[in-house]
């Protein structure tokens, strides 16, 4: 049976943004390698990882993920990574109110400077620390709804909702673009490329 005989193949550039220590790198490592380190060194500049998932309808989704550093001294580099991105995950820590404020500033920047049809997801991480929660789910969800964002709470440590987060992003991107991704800048429909050019390149 041929690869993805009934489904489609999509490719996205995705960037993670958020304050340092909210768990961006841990989310990516859980998603890509199903691995969690209790202690991780801070990302310097940005890290690149890739992951492919297959959805229930046999659609294959390839994510090219840029995990950006959260330290203020690297903030000026962020546009290099979110420029041309199809999707962004803005992460905050449910135990740190200031991290949500920082996430909101990233959302404002993306809405001003990123691609006009970028799909943005607000992600409240560290739900395994529920006893230390200070950011209420309803407050963050209301902000997301008011600003046209996707919303999900996750735990990189327990793996709760991590894959669901990325699946939700693909489904929204598919809806936003009418099920088509027509060029490199706004995402690639690899099956369409193969039909038009004889190869998915």
Keyword list:
alpha/beta, disordered C terminus, 6 helices, Rossmann fold, seven-stranded mixed beta sheet, membrane, cell membrane, 201 residues
Mind sketching the topology for me?
Blueprint: E1 9-18, H1 24-33, E2 46-54, E3 60-68, H2 78-82, E4 87-93, H3 97-113, E5 119-125, H4 137-146, E6 150-153, H5 162-176, E7 188-189, H6 190-197
Descriptive notes:
- With 201 residues, the chain is of the alpha/beta class.
- It has a single domain, classed as Rossmann fold.
- It has six helices and seven strands; from the N terminus they run E-H-E-E-H-E-H-E-H-E-H-E-H.
- The protein has helices at 24-33, 78-82, 97-113, 137-146, 162-176, 190-197, and strands at 9-18, 46-54, 60-68, 87-93, 119-125, 150-153, 188-189.
- Strands 1, 2, 3, 4, 5, 6 and 7 form a seven-stranded mixed sheet that branches.
- The two termini are 22 Å apart.
- This is Ras protein.
The helicity comes to 25-40%
Superfamily (CATH H level) name: P-loop containing nucleotide triphosphate hydrolases
Mean pLDDT across all amino acids? 81
CATH class identity = Alpha Beta
The counted number of beta strands is: 7
Quickly count the domains: 1
Largest sheet: 7 strands, mixed
Order of helices and strands: EHEEHEHEHEHEH
Strand content: 15-25%
Organism: Absidia repens
Subcellular location: Cell membrane
Main location: membrane
Protein name: Ras protein
Summarize the structure.
It is built from 6 helices and 7 strands, in the order βαββαβαβαβαβα. It is of the alpha/beta class and 201 residues long.
